[in-house]
Every structure is written in C-alpha cells, then in structure tokens.
Amino acid sequence: MKSFLSRIAIALVIFAFSGISAFAKRDTVTFPSNIKVNGTLVKRGTYDIKFNEETKELSILKAGKVIAHATARAEKEAAKAKGIKYSSIVSGDELQLLSVTFGGSDEKLVIVGGEAASK
User: Fold this and answer.
1) DSSP-based three-state secondary structure for 20
2) Minimal CB count within 10 Å: which of 17, 45, 47, 93?
3) Contact (Cβ atoms closer than 8 angstroms) between residue 109 and residue 72
4) Contact 96, 87 (CB under 8 A)
5) What is the Cα–Cα distance from 59 to 68, expressed in whole angstroms?
C-alpha cells in the first residue's frame, strides 16, 4: 500500500512540474560583446535565457541567477527559427537587445518599453 501511495505522489510531482514548464521557453545564448537588456548591462558570455508565457517576462540567467529581465511581446515570424537568434541595436556607444527568437519557434519576442520599442 505504501508503495502504491509513493508512486501516486511521484506521479503528481512529475505532472506538476511538467505543467509549469509548459508555460516557459528556455535556451542558451552567447553574446559576443556586452549588451544592455532593459537598462541592465549583461557582459559578453554564455547565458541561459527563459521566457515565461504567463507573465510575458524574458529573463537572462547565469548559474541559475537572474542577471537581467524585461517584458516582451510575441510577434509572428514567417518561418520557424533553426536555432536561437537575437537582434540588437547600437544606441550611443551601447548595444541594446531588441528581440529574441527561440529555436523551433515562429514567434519573435520583442522587448517592450524603452528604446527597443521605438525602433
């Protein structure tokens, strides 16, 4: 009986975690130079990038810690991206992140607010 209850508990935990991940997109991105994300400087390097579809928040993480975040809106693309890609713009002497497209997705995530939205 204990074994049966343990299996049910494990199944419920797995189900709960799979439901959470259905609302988030994740990937890894490498920035070859420093870039600003919503006013926060992200130094060149490799980062995890995550988009929460419920809250519309795009997060840049290093070792599990959020380095920068921004609100983003989805825009349809003509085709699915083969791999992760991003676009940026030079503003003054700084590079700013404009959008991110996850590999396999046909939606570009455009950062909302600030200079990124006006370009």
Assistant:
1) helix
2) 93
3) yes
4) no
5) 6
Summarised one tens digit per residue, pLDDT across range 29-46 is 999 999 999 999 999 999
**pLDDT tens per residue across span 64-75:** 999 999 999 999
Residues 6+ apart with CB under 8 A from 49: 26, 27, 28, 29, 58, 59, 60, 61, 84, 100
What angle (nearest 5°) sits at the alpha carbon of residue 30, between those of residues 36 and 75?
65
75-119 pLDDT, tens per residue?
999 999 999 999 999 988 899 999 999 999 999 999 997 454 433
Instruction: Classify burial at 92, counting beta carbons within 10 Å of its beta carbon; exposed 0-12, middle 13-18, buried 19 or more.
Output: exposed
What's the rounded Cα separation, in Å, for the pair 43 and 87?
A: 16
Q: Please say whether the beta carbons of 61 and 26 come within 8 A.
A: no
How far is Cα 23 from Cα 34, in angstroms, rounded to an integer?
A: 29
